[in-house]
Amino acid sequence: MEQQIMINAQNKRADSKKETVKRIANWLMEPVDWLGEYYSGLIEQKLNRRQTLWLVCAQVSLIVAVFPVNLNFTARIVGMLWFAWTLEKCREVLHGE
Fold first, then answer.
1. Residue 40: burial class (beta carbons within 10 Å; 0-12, 13-18, 19+)
2. Whole-number mean pLDDT of the chain?
3. I need a surface site. Which of 23, 32, 36, 57 has the fewest CB within 10 A?
4. Burial 73-92, CB ≥16 within 10 A → b, else e
5. Does residue 32 carry a pLDDT above 80?
6. How far apart are CA 6 and CA 77, in angstroms?
7. How far apart are CA 89 and CA 55, in angstroms?
């Protein structure tokens, strides 16, 4: 009987840790959820976190590819390739192809 109580106590402790990690992860993802709501309003389609993160990645890659003026040619080509890849992934994620 005592062993069952200890096992239950250990399970509760493990569940508590899992819940804490889950709460922290949800708290960290709140800005992504806000962006997802904003993007959903723009494109008139409900977006999940994964789709939102790919859209953010595409925006960041565009900024890296276009805006830094003092970037050497190789880095700019890598930025353009990254942007093209993220656009393709966005198309796949958003349209399910």
1. middle
2. 85
3. 23
4. eeeeeebeebbeebeeeeee
5. yes
6. 59
7. 9
Q: How far is CA 84 from each of CA 20, 77, 79, rounded to the nearest angstrom? A: 38, 10, 9
C-beta of residue 76 within 8 angstroms of C-beta of residue 65: yes
Closest CA to 95 of 38, 51, 36: 51
Q: What is the 3-state secondary structure (H, E, C) of 35-72?
A: HHHHHHHHHCCCCCHHHHHHHHHHHHHHHHHHCCCCCC
Residue 10 has pLDDT above 70, yes or no: no
- Note the pLDDT of residue 4: 59
Measured in whole angstroms, the distance separating CA 10 from the mean position of its chain's CA atoms is: 32
State the amino acid at position 5 in one-letter form.
I
The pLDDT confidence band at residue 1, using thresholds 50, 70 and 90, is low
pLDDT of residue 97: 54
